[in-house]
DNA sequence: GGGCATTGCGCAATTC
DNA sequence: TGAATTGCGCAATGCC
């Protein structure tokens, strides 16, 4: 129905642009999404020194304004608006995903750390056992077959220092 | 090329408010870059159904239009624009930080996993040593003090199976 | 050069 | 009452 954009370019002077925009909007008494639709009026490019000075630049601006009411323009705008919306949705989703990932990684980290703790404890127990046994051997008899000595166990560096091997 | 046809779902409708805006600005060239300075034309508040039928709300619209060129309005806008910019910068920074955090956590994860691997290996070696020793003992002599048996070592489940604990 | 995707920005409504 | 957020449209720009 009523196509409202039938406005003429309405002037376009050197410094500063004059644009007339007519807004005809439906209220549609929206309840939830009350985001009012609004239009924007462009300003071409921030060119044109207002302080009047030299001559008018090559002024590339010809239609720029004129095709505001063009059908094609409107279509392009609509398409872009759609694209923008899409892009923003994606961006937002990505941010959410990233946050989610942080949480997951944090959980995983805790799990791993718990496991490390467990393994360390196991290791420690085993070493103690070993040492104890070694002492017993030293106290009572001489190694029957010579298998384990305390030195074999104590040079393990599990204090986080990474060896260059492999 | 896809769907666009002639639909204009949002904005641009009938009945509503008409706003005329005249632009004559020498736009102080924006900050960085050449982001064109543009103005927007508002739409007032979607109030008062032009169709006029029944209950016309207590027309709340007072100036709304008039104060577009008000000094105070301009100041408010400027302040808000600043706030918006700030907010967006923060938001962006936060997103960046989150991403960074993901990377850090990933690294940490790898480190932890490597450590687990190392510990597991150590444990495995110790256990083997233990078993060997136990065999030796069994072959040659009877346990002098009775300290270690194979059973003590073999019930450790470090085969990656996750126990249900927490 | 056309077309979608991104991005910076301003406006207005809403939240705090 | 004012700052902070948020949704949205416009235009410039990036990228096929």
UniProtKB/TrEMBL annotation, chains A, B:
Highest taxon above the source species: Eukaryota
Keyword Nucleus: yes
GO cellular component: nucleus
Domain annotation BZIP: ranges: 70-133
Xref: InterPro entries: bZIP, bZIP_sf, C/EBP
Keywords: Activator, DNA-binding, Isopeptide bond, Nucleus, Transcription, Transcription regulation, Ubl conjugation
Identification of the protein by name: CCAAT/enhancer-binding protein gamma
Organism from which the protein derives: Pygocentrus nattereri
């Amino acid at each position: 129905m009523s196509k409202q954009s039938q406005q003429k370019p309405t002037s376009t002077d050197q410094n500063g642009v004059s644009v007339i925009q007519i807004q005809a909007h439906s209220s549609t008494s929206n309840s939830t999404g009350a985001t009012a639709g609004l239009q924007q009026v462009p300003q071409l490019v921030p060119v044109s020194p207002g302080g009047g000075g030299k001559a008018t630049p090559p002024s590339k601006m010809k239609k720029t304004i004129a095709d505001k009411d063009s059908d094609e323009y409107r279509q392009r705008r609509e398409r872009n608006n759609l694209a923008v919306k899409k892009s923003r949705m994606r961006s937002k989703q990505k941010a959410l995903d990233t946050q989610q990932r942080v949480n997951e990684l944090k959980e995983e980290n805790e799990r791993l750390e718990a496991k490390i703790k467990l393994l360390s404890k196991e290791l420690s127990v085993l070493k103690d056992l070993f040492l104890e046994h070694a002492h017993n051997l030293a106290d009572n008899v001489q190694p029957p077959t010579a298998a384990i000595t305390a030195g074999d166990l104590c040079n393990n560096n599990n204090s986080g220092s990474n060896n260059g091997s492999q």
